[in-house]
Amino acid sequence: MKLSKRVLRQIIREEKQKLQEGRMGEIWYQCMDNLFQMALENGYVCHLCASKAYEQCGQGPADIEICCRLIQDCCDDGMLAPLQHPTMRNVTVYTAID
After folding, report:
1. Distances, alpha carbon 56 to alpha carbons 20, 30, 38, 72, 80, in Å
2. Where are the domains of the chain?
3. pLDDT by residue (tens digit) across 42-95?
4. Which stretch of DSSP H or E encloses residue 62?
5. What is the phi-psi region of residue 51: left when phi exceeds 0, alpha when psi lies from -120 to 50, beta otherwise?
6. Cα–Cα distances in Å, from 6 out to 10, 11, 12, 16?
7. Residue 15: how many CB atoms within 10 A of its CB?
8. Less crowded by CB within 10 Å, the N or C end of the chain?
């Protein structure tokens, strides 16, 4: 079976994209694991901790949108739960679910 250059380029592009998505997924789950570990060690985490977990994976500084998405994914996966800060009632923190 002969493939044209255009079809071959498209196949290469699609495979390259799949590899990139797989690597990013692995990095994202590592960030989630880092954040969960912080919650276990500290008792709770906040958005600053999410930024640090993201940076620990070699991803550079995280903006608030990335931090919120990271915390939300951890909550959706049953790793974290929202909680009112022990002393500051207007602040929401997230605790690890064992």
Report:
1. 19, 9, 12, 19, 19
2. 31-96
3. 999 999 999 999 999 888 888 999 999 999 999 999 999 999 988 988 999 999
4. none
5. alpha
6. 6, 9, 10, 15
7. 10
8. N
